[in-house]
Amino acid sequence: MKEPSLIEFDDDIIIIQKNIIKNLKKITSSANKLFPYLYKYIEKTQFISQELFTLLNYYINYDKDSSVIFGQSKNERYVILL
Fold first, then answer.
1. Any bridge partners for residue 69, and if so which?
2. In whole angstroms, what is the distance from residue 12 CA to residue 15 CA?
3. Residue 76: beta bridge partners?
4. Which of 7, 21, 71, 77 is a plausible cystine mate for 58, CB 3.0–4.6 Å?
5. Does this model's pTM top 0.70?
């Protein structure tokens, strides 16, 4: 998914990855490899993708590594995509 604007099946990649994380309840090595390219998918979909936001939610809930920085301020959680 190095250049999602050139492929037609990027939605399928997002859905498959989302389902893998959902079922395993952890971030896999393939998910870690995919993570740096998600910003290109965000640009392609112009921030309109329910599947993408569900996938990002799974990263927030299941990621134990440093690919995503989490924080909490009062009652708000935030995430910084590296």
1. 80
2. 5
3. 73
4. 21
5. no
Rounded Cα distance between 13 and 29, Å, is 14
Give me the count of residues in the chain. Answer: 82
- Number of domains into which the chain is organized: 1
The answer to whether 4 and 11 have CB atoms below 8 angstroms apart is no
In this model, does residue 18 exceed pLDDT 70?
Answer: yes
Tell me the residue range of the domain where 76 lies: 4-81
- The amino acid at residue 46 is Q
Instruction: Measure the CA–CA gap between 65 and 69, rounded to whole angstroms.
Output: 9
Return the DSSP state at 7. -
- pLDDT, one tens digit per residue, over 26-69 is 988 888 888 878 878 888 888 788 888 898 889 888 876 655 55
